[in-house]
């Protein structure tokens, strides 16, 4: 796969981002960054010839390309893969392949853990043996604690344990940034919700708290600094800011996109050596652990409070078992109005004998009460219709664009307003 005659800094491949803004960019991967990623996977999580990597992510996504092609090819590990469509049709095939082939390493996004937990039957689970697993990465999207709890409980009989689960943070431009190391405990902590809205990560218990999953510690040779995105100065531990990263695994830039490259790569921080990449992700470091809180561009600011869309979406799902995944965002031109578009299982809703109007009212009342929102727009759509990345993560900004333009037809809608643009 790696040309022995090529220089370490020459291009190995281009991988285009999912393009949440509708403008995908070609991320340059050099032979040096490819080898650095394979080395990290071998040294930290044992992707040696003894390993068997199992996956289903598409090869044009960083997770599928790394886990199912590059790391096995360079480190000599065995790779077992199925197609993304096969997984989506029958999610349990993922775990069946691990069981059948003695998989030692696998990776998926939060939605995959939730989907297989929901759809695997008791009979299918009874036939699984997952004791061969050494590490089960959860990444590509925010890791929800309730998803991990449900997955571990549902598949406890298969031999899967909390120690195997490894939340990670990575991205196409930087490969692996942080992760739970093999000997580390799975870190799930509670924080004061009000202080979090003000950008502070303060441990707390009881009411008025939120639960977050740590994405572990920075990988070897990786330097992570949390920076105020406005002042561009480092912030103390426990304060939320933008993740800046310096690592041999970081891309040199975007292919033939000098302006975008200059905006993202090659930044310096006073008191630190090396060139840093701006990730656009928000996080805080506490006790050496990285707690990722969301995307800078997707954070919703209401009356000076920082609201994270994944928290609003998760709260909406607790209203009814008929509600699935969703996308929360600020309405274009209406900075005080939060919109949430939710997928609804119409059969499950029919079983509850509740109308769309009644469910919409309950969602609105619940979210406005829990999050103290001044105004909220709610829409329901059919399952499977929200825009997604190749690994199944919902794309919030395209969802906003589609619902506001009318290209996404809702089953129910209330509170959405015409798009306002500055004069």
Description:
This protein has helices spanning about 30-45, 60-75, 85-90, 90-100, 110-120, 120-125, 145-155, 195, 260-265, 310-315, 345-350, 355-370, 395-405; strands at about 10-15, 25-30, 50-55, 80, 105-110, 135-140, 165-170, 175-180, 190, 210-215, 215-220, 225, 240-245, 275-285, 290-295, 300, 305, 325-330, 335-345, 375-380, 410-415. It has about 425 residues and is α/β, with parallel strands linked by helices. The chain has 2 domains: about 10-295, Rossmann fold; about 300-415, 2-Layer Sandwich (GMP Synthetase, Chain A, domain 3), CATH 3.30.300.30. A hairpin with a 3-residue loop joins strand 7 (about 165-170) and strand 8 (about 175-180). The longest helix is centred in the C-terminal third of the chain and has 16 residues, at about 355-370.
Task: Describe the structure concisely for a colleague.
With 423 residues, this protein is an alpha/beta fold. It is built from 13 helices and 21 strands.
Q: Give the % helix.
A: 25-40%
Our estimate of the beta-strand percent is: 25-35%
Biggest β-sheet: strands ordered side by side in the sheet: 4-3-5-6-7-8-11
Q: Residue-averaged pLDDT, rounded?
A: 90
* Sheet of most strands: 7 strands, mixed
Distance between the termini: 53 Å
> What is the CATH third-level topology name of the largest domain?
Rossmann fold
- The CATH class name of the largest domain reads Alpha Beta
Instruction: Based on the coordinates given, report the CATH architecture of the largest domain.
Output: 3-Layer(aba) Sandwich
Strand element count: 21
Shape: globular
Report the C-alpha radius of gyration, rounded: 21 Å
Uncertain ranges: none
The figure for the number of domains is 2
